[in-house]
């Protein structure tokens, strides 16, 4: 069985200029791994209409599910919702369900529901809303694309409410074995192991810290017994973590 | 004058599985901003031949310069060099210049130049080598694509030696003004400001920390006087950082 696939689209000049270090990609990657969905591609594009539309059109076609992050706030450069509508060829306007949610929220807060805030109630036709428990202005899902905020706290809350609706594959089991030898020494036995356990995914991650160096071997698969067998095989070849 | 453009391709399952948090994107984004090159797109793809080749072909055509990170180590899943060769339709084999560098290094170290390590001397025809002061095995440049290692220390060293050879645009001046008001309040004045200063780039970045919330406004441009004028304009509208 192959797992369902996913892609992520991160929208925003702040990542590409190096001003902000992306946190949402790391969060989503971990959440998807837990439920057995394979994140296959991430794209980061700037607040540019053509770039956003082209990326959404390409990703929604090639992957089972697409998650977007960023560009749905109230400012002039928040153009994601309009771009998504265009990518799906549907109309977009301030929508009553989103408007009502936000209107009630600002009334309860005693603050004004300004025209710029109303931008955040623009939702494409046929989309369903994604709850925003942090600041109310919702995300939305249209077909296989989930459109979410870029602020990490809100993004994480939206991912938590969307993920149970996305059917995952078998969760991935992952085990790590640390070998106190460089990747050059480990590579050949690892290649043989990868051939023997072709149903598993083997990764090697060199580390170098405080003068010590070595390689972490991560073995992943959906069958726990197979993962354990591969780890035992590796342990037999590099007993005692490869320390001579 | 428009700045030269760049794209980055990050190769590796470890980012997409959430095992490793990407550091190279953040580093490169900052370095490019300093020298006035606009990073327009980042893609992260898995260790998959077709995905890597397709991404390189697409990016090298659309942007002035492409930087890749990852997949040039000695293990079975390090396939970047071969994919780049294929994307450029050139041959690839162990190349004497790379071989000699590494051979001398391992001899000096008293360690063996194994067959698996020799994988790292595979360099596409017509490419020039990028120095690796950390662990010798080189990266390479072919036309407008710079192929570098994924280990952050090595990636950073390679970026440092490549960047002076890439002609940048005018360095970007960036100034930030902190406003202790939500993005919904700031959005409208900001839109007017963006119209008035259409030669500058204005970004708003909401923050929420320990109960306090507000918006950082970042104004970027190549003309320092214009950036300062826009900041003064904004300060006049929200004196005292917007604190009432």
From TrEMBL, chains A, B:
Domain of life: Bacteria
Organism expressing this protein natively: Pacificibacter maritimus
Matches recorded under Pfam families: FLAD1_M, MoCF_biosynth
SUPFAM superfamilies (alphabetical): Molybdenum cofactor biosynthesis proteins
CDD domains named in the record: cinA
Positions of the MoaB/Mog domain: 7-169
PANTHER family: NICOTINAMIDE-NUCLEOTIDE AMIDOHYDROLASE PNCC (PTHR13939), NMN AMIDOHYDROLASE-LIKE PROTEIN YFAY (PTHR13939:SF0)
Stretches assigned to coiled coil: none
Name of the protein in question: Molybdenum cofactor synthesis domain-containing protein
């Amino acid at each position: 069985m192959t797992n369902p696939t996913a892609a992520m689209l991160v929208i925003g000049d702040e990542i590409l200029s190096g001003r902000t270090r992306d946190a949402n990609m790391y969060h989503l990657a971990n959440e998807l791994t837990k439920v057995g969905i394979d994140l296959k591609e991430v794209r980061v594009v700037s607040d540019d209409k053509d770039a956003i539309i082209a990326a959404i059109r390409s990703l929604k076609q090639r992957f089972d599910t697409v998650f977007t992050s960023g560009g749905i706030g109230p400012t002039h450069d928040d153009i994601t919702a309009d771009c998504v509508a265009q990518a799906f060829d549907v109309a977009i306007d301030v929508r009553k369900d989103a408007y009502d949610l936000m209107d009630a929220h600002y009334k309860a807060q005693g603050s004004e529901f300004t025209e710029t805030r109303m931008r955040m109630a623009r939702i494409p036709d046929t989309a369903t809303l994604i709850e925003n428990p942090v600041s109310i202005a919702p995300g939305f899902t249209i077909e296989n694309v989930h459109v979410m905020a870029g602020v990490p706290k809100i993004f994480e809350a939206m991912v938590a409410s969307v993920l149970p609706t996305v059917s995952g594959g078998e969760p991935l089991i992952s085990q790590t074995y640390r070998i106190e030898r460089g990747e050059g020494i480990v590579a050949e036995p690892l290649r043989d192991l990868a051939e023997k356990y072709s149903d598993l995914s083997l990764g090697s991650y060199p580390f170098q810290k405080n003068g010590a160096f070595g390689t972490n071997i991560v073995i992943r698969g959906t069958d726990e017994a197979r993962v354990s067998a591969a780890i035992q095989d590796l342990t037999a070849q590099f007993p005692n973590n490869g320390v001579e």
